[in-house]
What does this fold into?
Amino acid sequence: MQTLGGILTQALHLALMLVLAPLVPGLVRWLKARMQGRRGASPLQPLRDMRKLLRKRPVLAENASAVSEVAPYVAVVATLVALAQVPSFSHGMLLAPLGDLLLVAGLLALARVALALAGLDVGTQFGGMGAAREMSFAAFAEPTLLVAVLTFAILAGTTNLDAVAATFRDGQLGLRVSLALAGLSLLAVALAENARMPVDSPGTHLELTMVHEAMLLESSGRHLALWEFQAALKLELWLALLAAMFLPFGAAPGGAGPLAWALGLLAWLVKMAGLMLALAVFENAIAKMRVFRVPEFLGAALLLALLAAALLFVSTGLA
Amino acid sequence: MLTALSLALAALLLLGAAAVPLARRPAGARFVHAGCLGACVVLAVLAFWALLASGGGPVLALPFGPPWGRALLALDGLSAWFLLLLGVTGGIASLYAMAHPAAQPGAVPPFPLLLAGMALAVVAADVFTLLFGFEVMSLASWALVAADHSRAETRRAARLYLMMAVLSAACLVPAFGLLVGHAGGFSFAALRAAPPAGWLATGVLVLLLLGAGSKAGLAPLNAWLPRAYPVAPAHVTALLSGATANVAVYVLARLLLDLCGPAQPLWWGVPLLVLGAGSAVLGALRANLEGDIKVVLACSSIENIGLITIGLGLALAFRGADLGPLAALAAGAALLHTLNHGVFKTLLFLAAGSVERMAGSRVLDRLGGLIHAMPATAACALVGIGAAAALPPLSGFASEWLLLQALLAGWRTGDVTFQVLAAAGTALAAMAAALAAAAMVRLFGLVFLGRPRTPRGAGAREVGRLERWALVIPAVLTLLLGLLPGPMLALAQPALATLLGRAAAVPAQGFALLGGSGEAVAWYLPLALLAVLLAAGLLVALVVRARSPLETRRGPTWDGGFIRPPDYLPFGDPLTQPSAAGLAQPLHRMLGAALYAARETVDMPRPGETRAARHRATLADPAHDWLVLPAGRLRGAVASWLERMRDFTVRRCLSFGFGTLVVLLALLAWLEAR
Amino acid sequence: MPLPWLVVFFPWFGALVLVALPRLRLAAAVNLGVSAVSLLLALLLLGTPHGEQGWTRVDALNQPLVLLSAIIGLTTSIYSYGQLDAKGFDHLRLRAYHGAYQLFMGAQALALLSDNMGVMWVAIEIATMASVTMVAVHGTPAATAAAWKFFILCGVGIALALFGTVILYMAAQPLVGHGDGGLSWAALRLVAARCDAGLLNLAFVFLLVGYGTKVGLVPLHFWLPDAEAEGPVSISAVLSGLLLNAAMVAVLRAKTIVAANPLAIPPGPFLMALGLASVLLAGFALWRRRDARRLFAWSSIQHMGLAAFAFGLGGVGGNLAGLLHLLGHSLAKSAVFFGVGLATRLKDSQKIADIGGLATSHPALGWSLVVAIAAVAGMPPFALFASEFLLLTETAARFWWLALPLGLGLFIAVTAKVNVMQQLCLGDATPDAAPGPAGAVPGRLAFGTTLGPIWVHLVLALVLGAALPAGGAALLAQAAEMLR
Amino acid sequence: MTFGQLPYDIAHLLGGAMLLLSFVLLYQRRVQAVINAFAMQGGVLALAAAWQGAMQGAPELYLTALIAFVAKAVLIPLALRAIVRRMNLHRSVETALGIGASMMVGVAVVALAILVVLPITAGARAIAREDLALALSVVLLGMLMMITRRNAISQVVGLMSLENGLVLAAVGVAGMPLVVELSTAALVLVVFVVAGVFVFQIRERFDSVDTAALEKHRAEGTWEAQRADGAWEAQPAEGTWEAQRADGGREAQPAEGGRDAQRPEAAWNAQRAEGRPEVPRHGGLP
It folds into this structure.
């Protein structure tokens, strides 16, 4: 029963993620437009773009190597596998034992490296610029993520994603300053990882400052579609991660029945919607910062995370 | 078993002697390297056997030794683990050397000696034999670094290298002396029987960190490393980075964890943790800023050695806090990473050697696009790059996962200071990993991707068969080590037992790695992960294939709107490609300025001027400028001052004798008066 | 005639013959033969039981040293046989040289073997005068200057040593009574415990300053660099290889006598102080040398300082380290001098700047020199590595605060030698000197008679450091036991 | 066997006379006078040796006395005079330390000698102690003379008076074995030194016998000379630490890399890869 439930939930989870992925950026874009008083494109626009791109014939540069062709698949698969471990509406999914925050970080790094290599493959200066910046930002984002993970690990005793989420859902931890700080730092990381507003402007293609788009200039057709899909998956993954960590209520415990799943699904959708709204508000409120201030932004986040851990050490007499 | 081991050692020594006449002819050199390969295989098999037999063999007293005793050999778990590493890396390096023997005749004879020295240092069972092997290793590797001594750069690097080796010996011997004086014997058994305590232990710790740390390449005494590694032949560099540095790690582990006894306090781990974290970040950062393949790889070695040291420090601290399982976790991470790093770094250095030979340069700004000319090399290098960048499911990720698990468990020691340090260490280790990934992407992108940057690079060819094997084998090993970390750790159990006592439990179960401790543990199941990845990949591939049937077409690069390069630029317009300095620039500004006093000067021509713009990026190693140079200057000043004595006339020399006599007499009178 | 006397008198007899011989080659060959025979005698000496024979004694301390001096004597004469056609040797000089050489060999064998402090003093004096003759044999102004300095300083030293000997007897006189036995080392050692401590202290000070001058301890070292740099190469080899050892043995004999008296001020610290001063000063001075042979002369000072420090440290470990160091240093240093000597002939200059890239121009010589210098610098697998390891561990174990300056001195000295090794042997070769003023260009013979001895010495140093037969180890241990 | 008995008083008298003569040697300015004083000291030494022989009933001491007299009171002074004549050194001795100062140092040295000998009581008889103090003073004064005089003759004389002190001590000890041999050997040493002045032809090779002149003939040159041309700053041909610092900038990028960074196209790459507007100032949106 347990395993069957695990398999079922896992399958449902995957399907849900795959379906919802293209909607997430579309919804955020739409919400932003609404707030700016524009009508904005339909939330389904990204889905349409991808379908169209898939149908187009992909063109590769003459000197493009196999890297350009393989990288998008690698990135998508890595992100997908990472996403498959983030509990959405239920715990105790099939891959729960595999799910591990460090592994998620590793898979994201794999996707990032694939993207950067693809950007470098043809040897154009924009691709190089984007790759260099992407990897450099990661040098600040990853420690922040890890220190935030440290906070969870201290509270939950493990880095297993499912276990951490379950611990938080049971909620005997209560509200903690350190959790709030860790949450803030994780938000900053999420923005940087997804090339969102203060770090990068997802809407525009302003060549000189963009990071993520710069690496895709040479890709087209299904490759571009895969890249777009990967970006969407990543955004979804981060939102889901934040939801699972900081809004753990509602998710169905492992081995629960379909009813609990439905409730959990509802709760999850609400959470995601809330997060997307928050993201849209934030992106409207704040302006893009200069590239070389990003380290300061992420450095501040890192300090916040460290502060959270330190607070945890001193506040609760651990060990 | 030990007899066979000593026979292999003797064979290596004979090979070194025989190499002097043999090295002149390529066939002879090939024979020598083949012999090295055989010996390395023997060593690896013996080590493997010893590990399966759970180590702890008897002590063999050689019939000869220093005048006051006999040399002792033993093959316990720790020795076997490092001997295994040595055998693997040495074998691969020898195989690669067989591929093109006529490279440098001067580099043939010391090679077997280097192997022998390392093996001796690893299997020694008394401090004299240990240091003997250690110094033979240093001397042989000096000879290898200096093999091409016609270039001043090489000579400078070789001199610095040997001087640092002398320094490490000058620090290690007093450390041994403190231990020996306390225990009253040179053998490991005697030292184990009487572990030091108090200031004595502190002195030993400091001296060991200076001696073995500088040899391993820990900051701040690692200025020699990025200079010495690049100038040696490729297979030598591979061995230096893959094995020699790890022998120093072995010395650290052996003395700090094993010989100094389990009763050391918690703070013993702190200096290792700090030094390791610092080295990791500094090395990884510098790997992003350098412009020479081998230097980049050497700096990444610094980073990995730093990570290993973090593991050792954590093991010490956990043991000091009576957290046995966590100590096993940290030590296991260190051991596993030692092996993984040894293999993939060997692979990368060998690939760098192939690139240098086939494309004619080590300088990143002269290479590019080699993935088309050298696909096999590129594929193997990509595996190594992935491992070095700690990407799942490759070997680097497995050991760094363990290491991060150990760091994340650092708070369990209960000591707030250490908790904060461990948190900072977590951040630094993660940053080092990310920086390493950036460096590796930059390396692969500049060397193998993009377009050639010089005609010579455009004329590169794929390497020969033998050489290709020498690249494929470590690549396959890297994959296997990444997929089977659990069994490898189970194999390392004897080593852990040597370090932490019989009770040490391996942080692995079946094919999985176990992180954390207590009720909730985190799992890392590389095989399952691979399965999931493949399944997902299949799924995605099928879906995409179904939805987008059209074949890809080749077209001109859009290239940000630049026009096609003219025909007289056969390999494209170099100006429109990112350069090493360009890819380095973000980190150069973000971190380099702070940590490496990195400066960049740009001089842009006025609009309408025809002269080219100039961009110059420099960085200085603070350790070298603030430690080595002042020491050298001080030495010079004292020497110049003392040199005044040279011009003394006979009379003044005599007056010195008279003065000595008078002083001694006065001293005598004073002493007797009292 | 007991064997020890034979060991002494046979070379002297040879000296007489050599002074008489007119023909160059023949003289050199005879010199060779005499050295070979005395090596044979020294080997026989190993078999003789320990004990006194009249003025001489055979014990564990001097047996290895006598053998060593015989070996080095032979190799040196082989080397000089190959260098006959070098410049600066006419008949007269060569006669003087050969005669003085054998005289010196006999004298310093006597200095090692003598049981009587007075006889030992006379022997060392004879050795000094013989070596002065050899230093001055070229007759160049520099050689004259060096010889004069050598002679004045060592003459004063020897005089002081005689004074010390007299005081030593004065201390023992009430106990041993009249007669030749009064200066016997054995007898003195027996009664030392009951002698007057004050006199013993005084005696030791004079003996230390006197013989210490010949050992070359700072600040009594000034004669050594010039003497070893300006004379013929072979004299440098035997000076640093043998004379210094003999003087050191003299100091040790005095030390053992004084140390046997509980009331006397322990002599060890004096030796340690002078030794440490030598190590440090030489370590720094090595960095400022521009003349290859002076550099290695300074390294002799440094190594003698190490040995003195070891003996001052005392104990079985310290003494063993000191003995090993004496033996290993003699072997390695004379090997280096052979190599440097040939290089000096090739380049017709002994400036380091003029000798460069030997490994490029003359690979065999260059790499041999690399290994030899590595041996002198205390790299494994040679004897100096073992002795320095033992010394440093002993120091750290017993006086950890002394391990700091000692380690520093060692580090500075070894790095300096590494530096010079690379300058001499690696890199682009400097041009060889044109034949003519430099004498004939060295041929196969010269190379053979250089590389052969070098490698003989190196192999011996290796055996000594890493694979000493049980018998030898036992002998050394016995000597170390005897000296404490 | 204590003071007040004629034989010992005479022995002390002779010893004291030698000490006095050492001071005279230290005091003299003219070479001739120095040689004369030395001859007298030799004579006194011979007397002392003979007297000791008579006292100890040791006939070999007469031999010592004879040798001492013949050599030190007669032959060597003659030889020195010959040297002085051959090199016509009829000028006064240049002193490194003023006469007065050296006298004072001499007194201090004698005081030290007495201080050192004072605590020696047990075993040795008071008598030997006195002799020892005298002999020690003579030895030290001789050495002092060697280091306070500039020219070879007086240094030789200093060495010889030092050696006189040795012989005085040797004969003073009752029953000293080998005394003849040892004193003879010491004499030989001295004779060698004197011969050295001849054989090395110091006069002919150098315009003065000032030993400082010898220093000029050394392969390595003098310290001042080397420092003047800053020789050793560049000395280890391939790079002292200074040289290494010189290429400290090279640390950043190895040889070719460094040059590459300055090649225009590389520079352009850097700027392009980074986007032009960023190059002058920190980048980002203008």
